[in-house]
């Protein structure tokens, strides 16, 4: 809308200039002198130049939007079949305070710190590939021989930075921010470990196996085996699930 109005104004000015030039040419035809001819040439050149500038400005304002080209290449590194079931989901808000102190030239104290709010969703479940059981077809029973501990299937995190303080000679680098996020995520995982998520996951799995076996007319012989591992999420499994 603005560009259309500007074009109308430009064309109006151009028409007025043409009228003025025509009138001026008529006046010059009444006098014959070198100065008049030079003045006429200068006016004609000025009008042509003004017209070119007006035309270019009009084209600039009405130009098409910039053409943006995007490309992406995705490479699948590996794929394999898994049988993992999520049996519990937890949402966490973690306040992580990062502070680093150092000395410039070994005597000038320098400090940088950041307050990070981490919102995370943690999924806890089981890997069926790690189950071991014995089936008694005659008595229609299933006995759990080795039942794995619940593990963190995935963590989805969102980071919001507040109160970032840094000094000119001690700024946050990309590696620092990556370290802050990694440490903050680990704090969330530790919080999930201490929460009731493993217990909820174990209870959900006990219910699931019992109902699945009941649908096939089987009975789970030792469901208490599941509860024995509900609090055994260790550090290695949590790191592996990240």
Overview of this protein structure:
- The chain crosses the membrane at residues 6-26, 38-57.
- Pfam families: DUF4230.
- Keywords: Membrane, Transmembrane, Transmembrane helix.
- With 242 residues, this protein is of the alpha+beta class.
- The protein folds into two domains: 2-61; 84-241, no CATH class.
- Helix content is 44%, strand content 29%.
Q: H/E element string? A: HHEEEEEHHEHH
Stretches where pLDDT is under 50 for at least 5 consecutive residues are 234-242
Largest sheet: 3 strands, antiparallel
Query: Proportion of β residues?
Result: 25-35%
From the helix content, strand content and strand pairing, which structural class follows? alpha+beta
Using the alpha-carbon principal axes, give the shape.
elongated
Number of domain units: 2
- First and last CA, distance: 53 Å
- Give the averaged pLDDT, no decimals: 76
As a whole number of angstroms, the C-alpha radius of gyration is 38 Å
Helix content range of the residues, please? 40-55%
| DSSP summary, beta strand count | 6
Task: Note the total helix count.
Answer: 6
Q: What spatial order of strands do you see in the largest sheet?
A: 1-2-5
Keywords: Membrane, Transmembrane, Transmembrane helix
Transmembrane segments: 6-26, 38-57
Pfam families: DUF4230 (PF14014)
InterPro entries: DUF4230 (IPR025324)
